[in-house]
Specification:
Blueprint: E1 5-12, H1 31-44, H2 48-72, H3 75-82, E2 85-86, E3 89-90, H4 94-102, H5 115-122, E4 126-131, E5 135-137, E6 147-149, E7 160-162, E8 164-166, H6 171-178, H7 182-191, E9 193-197, E10 202-204, H8 205-208, H9 211-218, E11 225-228, E12 234-237, H10 252-262, E13 267-272, H11 276-291, E14 297-302, H12 304-310, H13 331-349, E15 355-360, H14 367-379, E16 384-388, H15 390-393, H16 399-409, H17 425-437, E17 441-444, H18 446-457, E18 488-497, E19 502-507, E20 526-527, E21 534-535
Parallel strand pairs: 5-8, 14-15, 15-16, 17-18
Antiparallel strand pairs: 1-13, 1-14, 2-3, 4-9, 6-7, 9-10, 11-12, 18-19, 20-21
Helix pairs in contact: 2-9, 3-5, 7-9, 11-13, 12-13, 13-14
GO molecular function, one term: formate-tetrahydrofolate ligase activity
Family: In the C-terminal section; belongs to the formate--tetrahydrofolate ligase family. In the N-terminal section; belongs to the tetrahydrofolate dehydrogenase/cyclohydrolase family.
Keywords: ATP-binding, Ligase, Nucleotide-binding, One-carbon metabolism
């Protein structure tokens, strides 16, 4: 219950597919069903995150190992180890040949290189202070936000400060979600920038020589997983970059595969994370650019409870009973909170796409509250606003929504991007901040400005923007609900995900490694050793 809305996009005759979250509400089946959905789906079903973690951390290990070996060996020793003689034959591997070509060395016999060419080949000269690649783990562990590596005696004093990110923030996750095939994925993995040399040159995964191994680790993860809802609707489950710290959308491959399967007259629904300010904005500006796909309609999913929070309702704490304001009728809170709904509709209209509001109805919602939300939504520009009862009735509770989406999707829209890629990095960030978030302006930290200058120098200025921002507010301040105004958006840092293909500003205090609260949900999770039934996940 952060921003009041999550989004899905509907495409007719040419776009997308992914997860439907109402899937679990009817999950009162056998212990086997609970086991399958709870563990297989939520934790280990696709294996995507495991593959991404292994690939990401292989890059991290390669970086630190290369820094150590270059610092402790001569050019000759490095060359003999990087290009060893095997059974009396010495030759470059294909990825080493590619590096030679990038260096402008057009030789294939290792014995033909001059000492100067050998030095250029063996020394990446990575600056330990300018390594941008982080290790990842799929656990909320706040104590990994800043760490020191290389403290063992065997690392010969080559310690440095670094950090862990959550696994879904890995650039490799974004690549998985944006790629259109194995060849493209391998090329994107090779373009990933891991840091800079001491003379300011970008160092990539290709330079490290690790690209082929990464592709092997990811070769199965690139395949979408086909599942179905309890009512038999086919669903592709693939990729999971969070919208608050990544681009927040399911994979292009799943979208295109789904479109092919449904045919010209079929419909595909794809989900984008959190509110229209982050998941949807990145869907349009990043995913649509990459895929070439265009949506026919946006479905904004709202709840009365979330709108009440945006209207000034009390804070909600996980594991604690809901305050009475969210259980009893309160039309004033709903009316005030609909300011957020109106803003979300306006954000969608910036891209020229019509909106259907789907009000996800729960048993504590009153008819007066439901009618108020639908009325305000349509008055705010939604092409339709429909009360949906899939929480209690399953698919038959959303038939009216399906008809509304079908009708609106048949109408012509005027899709457009929010900004031109040739705009400067600063102007693209400012455009998002002002037009989407409602900020007066942006404020760049000295570190962020220095990185922008460096990225421009390296030729990365024409990439789209992927903002890392809280999902709990339109602003950078999680406690500011509704439609905050009069604020300056602070840009603390900026990263470059060159393989994925975007620039990655960090807004305010946004962290790429979440932390556990005082009472994590693991207190409620357990396993029945006899039935293997999982308890406490829902």
């Amino acid at each position: 219950m952060g921003n009041s809305l999550s989004k899905s996009k509907c495409f007719k005759k040419g776009v997308t597919a992914h997860i439907l979250y109402c899937l679990y509400q009817k999950l009162q089946k056998t212990a086997y069903s609970l086991y399958f959905f709870s563990i297989q789906f939520n934790l280990h079903l696709t294996g995507d995150i495991h593959a991404i973690t292994a690939a990401n951390n292989l890059v991290a290990a390669a970086i630190d190992a290369r820094i150590l070996h270059e610092a402790t060996q001569s050019d000759k020793a490095l060359y003999s180890r990087l290009v060893p003689s095997v059974n009396g034959v010495r030759c470059f591997s294909p990825i080493q040949m590619a590096r030679l070509q990038r260096l402008g060395i057009n030789k294939s016999d290792p014995s033909d290189l001059t000492p100067e060419e050998v030095r250029a080949f063996v020394r990446l000269d990575l600056d330990p202070e300018k390594v941008t690649w982080q290790r990842v783990v799929d656990t909320n562990d706040r104590f990994l936000r800043k760490i020191t590596v290389g403290q063992a005696n065997t690392e010969k004093g080559h310690a440095r400060q670094t950090q862990f990110d959550i696994a879904v923030a890995s650039e490799i996750m974004a690549i998985l979600a944006l790629t259109d095939g194995l060849a493209d994925m391998r090329a994107r993995l090779g373009r990933m920038v891991v840091g800079s040399s001491r003379n300011g040159q970008s160092i990539t995964a290709d330079d490290l020589g690790v690209t082929g191994a990464l592709a092997v680790l990811m070769k199965d993860a690139i395949k979408p997983t086909l599942m179905q809802t309890l009512e038999g609707t086919p669903v592709f489950v693939h990729a999971g970059p969070f919208a608050n710290i990544a681009h927040g959308n399911s994979s292009v491959l799943a979208d295109k595969l789904a479109l092919k399967l449904v045919g010209e007259e079929g419909y595909v629904v794809t989900e984008a994370g959190f509110g229209a300010d982050i998941g949807m904005e990145k869907f349009f500006n990043i995913k649509c650019r990459t895929s070439g796909l265009r949506p026919d309609v946006v479905v904004l999913v709202a709840t009365v409870r979330a709108l009440k929070m945006h209207g000034g309702g009390p804070n909600v704490t996980a594991g604690v009973p809901l305050p009475k304001e969210y259980i009893n009728e309160n039309l004033q809170l709903v009316a005030d909170g609909c300011s957020n709904l109106k803003k979300q509709i306006q954000i969608a209209h910036l891209f020229g796409v019509p909106v259907v509001v789907a009000l996800n109805v729960f048993k504590t919602d009153t008819q007066a509250e439901i009618d108020m939300v639908c009325c305000i939504a349509e008055a705010s520009g939604a092409s339709a606003a429909v009360q949906c009862h899939h929480w209690s009735r399953g698919g038959r509770g959303s038939v009216e929504l399906a008809h509304a989406v079908k009708k609106v999707a048949s109408q012509k829209n005027h899709f457009q991007f929010l900004y031109n890629l040739q705009d400067s990095i600063v102007e693209k960030i400012r455009t998002i901040a002002q037009k989407v978030y409602g900020a007066d302006d942006i404020e760049l930290s000295p570190e962020a400005q220095a990185k922008i200058d460096h990225y421009n120098q390296q030729g990365f200025g024409a990439l789209p923007i992927c903002m890392a921002k809280t999902h709990l507010s339109l602003s950078h301040m999680p406690e500011k609900k509704g439609v905050p105004t009069g604020f300056i958006l602070p840009i603390r840092d900026i990263r470059a995900s060159i393989g994925a293909g975007f620039i990655y500003p960090l807004v305010g205090t946004m962290s790429t490694m979440p932390g556990l609260p005082t009472r994590p949900c693991f207190y409620d999770i357990d396993l029945d050793p006899v039935t293997e039934e999982i308890k406490g996940l829902f």
